Amino acid sequence: MKLVRSVCPFDCPDACGLLVEVEGGRAARVRGDPEHPYSQGTLCPKVNAYERSVHSPDRLTHPLVRTGPKGEGRFRRASWDEAIALVADRFRAVAAEHGPEAILPYSYAGSMGIVQRNAGMAFFNRLGASRLERTICTPAQDAGWSALMGKTPGPDPDEVLDSDLVVLWGINAVATNIHFVKRVKEARRRGAEVLLLETYETDTAPVADRTLLVRPGSDGALALALVHVLARDGLADERFLAAETVGWPEWRARVLAENPPEWAAAETGLPAAEIEALARRLAAARAPFIRMGGGPSRHGNGAMNVRCVAALAAALGAYGRRGGGCFLGTASSQAFDLADWLGEGLATRPARTVNMNELGRALRELRDPPVRAMYVWCSNPASVAPDQGAVLAGLAREDLFLAVHERFLTDTARYADVVLPATSSLEHVDLYRSYGHHTVQRVSAAVDPVGEARPNWEVFKLLAAAMGFEEPLFRMTADEVVDLVLERSSTTGWWDGVDRSRLAAGGAVTIRPPRPPGAPRWATPSGRIELRNDRHEEPLPRFVPSHSHAARGGKLPLRLVTAPALYTLNSTFQERPDLREKAGGMTLKLSPAEAAARGLADGARVVAWNELGEAAFTLRVTPRVPAGVAVAEGVFWLAQTPGGRNVNVLTSQRLTDGGNGSTFYDNRVDVRAG
Ligand code: SF4
User: What is the pTM (predicted TM-score) of this model?
Assistant: First the structure.
């Protein structure tokens, strides 16, 4: 038996260190690496027995070519030579007839590894294919933060240990950031109060002293009213605001005029007296630390929600105090220069951009040229993309050639013309960074490839050769790509003092945001926190209604929250029967009042519906969900759902107010007996 270090590859801020016990080229057991500086030896329930995913009997072990109707999942075995030739031939034919923009790459964070996740970028740039706007997750967060803070990284997440008031704002951290929860518990043990601000009582509620529920999408309204109370009652940190920000006088005047607690009570559902009390509690804290999750950003007003909450932390002066501030992520992407690896210089002409949240529209409505070929890796859009009805109708087009590179026969793979078997993270080389802390780790293959599975980068090299691309990049090994990325990134300033030999040996190393001597503390054009940003079409943080706000025509009675779950991560882990059983299938949570109003009992079969479609659920009646809200946790594979559709048949392709992000939490539904 040998022990190999690795990293959890999934889309999670924790990027846990793994120890793989390898026997006979197989992973006998995967456990947490006690030497990892952040995860310190523990893993979440999803990855605790990762060897079961790696060696699942359902792994794809050889290429497949479709023999039945699209979506049915009937295939014949093919050789790699045949499969690669088929994909290359179809790409050549589509490019010749319609131009290369008729080819659409589609990928996201099925692996967070910098090599495998981005493996197709150079190939598709060289080909001249359409470019995918990869904005399904955090772009509204980024847009909201950068409107205020520019490129300033947030506080170090470990500073939460020094806080005396922790606010978990729109984050079910027990499901999505479990090692941060450990630190929150430690802060609480040291005397901090912990508040949870949420749209329903999640599994994170027991971590907090108190949970405050607000209406989905009303986070910005709450933040503005809190600032109103701070400004009105002389509780804002005027010294910090005068020294470190621009625009406070104008913003102060606006929130005083427009955003009193009584107004916010109507928007948020939180009584005005509670808003007043919360503002006073925040102002009394020595170092309030707001950990903001993705929830508030996944609305039509998501960027403004984030901007308002981040600006609230400025009004409190929290950024100026150790243990205080607003944390969304580490901005560690700034540590990497990926331009050469992504083949930015290989594109010979500009190509159009297709937003990944609008895949349904792209497949059905794009012209000049239409999408006639698509290649999917590290994603499962049939399950996870919004407006599933439109996506599936697009994938079912007979004139669309679809190639999918995957570990399992996912819902998307079932629609493929060619399926290519992919390696798991234990079977290939990669380089990982975390967006929830500051470690970087380089990993080697720990086990032999399962069957004929190949890494993403190997397959794109085969495709490049088949297409006649001769650039040296397409001959590099994955290890050489890691070397290239590290070498190009060495000038970003984040790598000073990094133990390079430890990195080369597979150990986790810590990178830090640069603080050049004499540089302003705030990485904005003015060098201050920009409460007023005249480059932005909205110069001041202000109230913007969500898409499903009544003022924008939201009519159906229930706001649908499509929340993360404990035992799935988007559509990943559905291959594991043990985790499927724990996840308990598609359930919809409603308050007792909403269930009673519809004559529905706990455990009933129900259908949630809106103008986009309908999905079948088992009803859970619980007082943990407020009236006016329906909660569906987890994204299930369609093949395992009762009606062949998951919650994304109810989510729309509408985008956020900044960053062109997804609006998964900003939809309305009603529910009836199924
Ligand atoms: S999913 Fe997240 S918490 Fe779970 S093992 Fe992976 S990185 Fe750690």
Answer: 0.97
